[in-house]
Structures are given as C-alpha cells and as structure tokens.
Input
Amino acid sequence: MASVLLPIAEGFEELEAVALIDVMRRGGIEVRVVYLEDETHGALVTGANGITVQADMSIKNIISEDFDMMVLPGGWDGTYALAENERVIELVQEFKEKKIIGAMCAAPFVLKKAGVLGNDYTCYPGAKEEIDHPGYRADAKVVTDGNVITSQGPGTAVCFGLVIVERLVGVESMQAVKDGMLLDYC
Amino acid sequence: MASVLLPIAEGFEELEAVALIDVMRRGGIEVRVVYLEDETHGALVTGANGITVQADMSIKNIISEDFDMMVLPGGWDGTYALAENERVIELVQEFKEKKIIGAMCAAPFVLKKAGVLGNDYTCYPGAKEEIDHPGYRADAKVVTDGNVITSQGPGTAVCFGLVIVERLVGVESMQAVKDGMLLDYC
Output
C-alpha cells in the first residue's frame, strides 16, 4: 500500500490539507498526518481559517523510509512554521533524494529553502515573488518535474491529489476517485 | 455579519464540510460548527475518511434566531446521524420557515425527512434513489429553489460555498473569494 506523509502546522490552509488527505485516502493511499513537536496544542492543529484538525501523530519518530512521498499543504503561517523546522527540512531533502516530494500554494517556499525546488514548478500566484525561484509556471494547476510535484492553491488541491493517486496507485484508481468525487474539472 | 450554522456528525464528508467552512469564512461569514449531543467523542468528530475536526460547540443551546442559514455537509453516516436527531430536524424546519436551509451530497436526505425539500433540488447522483423525491436536477452543481439550496458532492462544495457567500454577503465578496481561491471552474 502506498503511503504519504503530510505535516500540518498552525496556520495551514485547511481546504488544501483536507482535500489532499481525502482524495489520497479514497485512492487507497495510507496518509499519515503529523504535527510538529513545537505546536502549542499538540495533535490539535488550527488552520488559517480557524478550523482545527487532529493530526495522527508527532513528526518526532517519523522516518522517510516508511513513506513513498511527503506532501506539504500551503497557508503562509503554516508554511513559515514548516520552513523553520529543522526536521521538516531534513525530511524534505531525504524525500527529494530517494522518494517523491510535493508542495502547494505557499509551501513550495519550504522546498526552495531546502534547496530541492526544480526547474519547473508552480505555486500560489501571489507567492511567487517570495519563493523567488526561476521556472514558475502559471499555465498548469499541477506541475510534475521528476520527483518534485507542485500545485497552485485551494481550488487546485483536489486535482493535485488526483495526480498523486495516479502516480502512486495507478490511473484506474485515479479515475474512480475523480468520478466518485465529481472532479470533472481536473 | 452574516452567520451560518453547520452541524457535523460522525461519518461526515470532510472535504465538503471544510470547503464550505473555508469559503464562507473567507467571504466574511461567521460559521459556527456544531456537534450532536450524542457524539462519542464530544467536539472531536471523525469524518468518512478518518479526518477528525473539532467542532466549535454543541448543538444543545443553539437557536435558529442567531443565524441566517443552516447548511448540512454530506457523507452517508453523518447524514443518517443528522436525520435521526430530533433537534436537527426541528432546526431544519425552522430554517426553512424563517431563514435559509442548505444541504449537499447525501444530506438533502435530511431535508426530505424534515419535509422541506422543494420542487427543484440536486444531490449526489448516487443518492437520488434513496432521497426519492421529484425535482432532482443533474444539470447544475448548485440548485437554488427559494430558500432551499442544494449541491451535488465533494467536487462542488467550493462552488456551493460561493453561492452562499453571494447570497448572504454579496457578489463582490463572492468574486474576491473565487479569485483568491482559484475557483475559476465554479
């Protein structure tokens, strides 16, 4: 069974995180949602719009060997918290080297900081100045550049999830999730 | 400030609930997420895909006078729990009479049970036999029939949220949220 690591930090964009988790789990992927050790309220993490989601476990004992991919939802405050966390940066680098790494909205900022952003990527249009990296593409909801996959924002999160399901599980599972969730626009 | 009541029960569809809350709060609506009194884990409510969201308060002391609208996310288990809850049925009837009532995916089943489903509605395509009510429309992501608004499923939740923002706040706020969340497909 394919498995994906998804860290959330205070101020994460809730729709992006939940859309990714929902689509991936429907596609048969085991998704582990983790919180950072320095979160004020432990596993209960509050997003940018005041929605509190319970993470499955702490990032403390996570090792990249147990997963096929790591994916980062956006939201600026959550993104800054991820970027400032040394363990997150280490994991991002390990996933780039040996697995698949994904980020959306503001979170490609974390990939930039970790030095793993490729030649082609996308992000939230309003975030590209701060990410400040050549290769930004405005023309695609999801951009795959080798083992780095990026996406634009809240409205593209479900489509990003489908690309991950297709890559880790297969096109038939992806199509079943797409039909079942009424995602004809992806 | 416009205010919306959104109840969640074990087995709710997480993306639908979170998309509605996220879009409505970005649009300037105060959204109160409530749990049912008989939930096993109180305010922590787990959805159909294993995502646990923390509700803001219990439905116990809620009165319809404090809100402009009530909206129900789908997911079959959550829908059945809402349909079996007497207070939810009472509130649905009060909102139909004096305010606005909304439901999506499987949840128009609750409106049917409460006797408030109108002449034109939509729902999850796979739920229409069980809802068993004339007037089902397959051709629209969101159907407005007076003060009853319905929508189809996970992929249409963001568009449903925009329709609510336009109705309760105005077209300019709706357009700002639509642009900011990259929801050009709605």
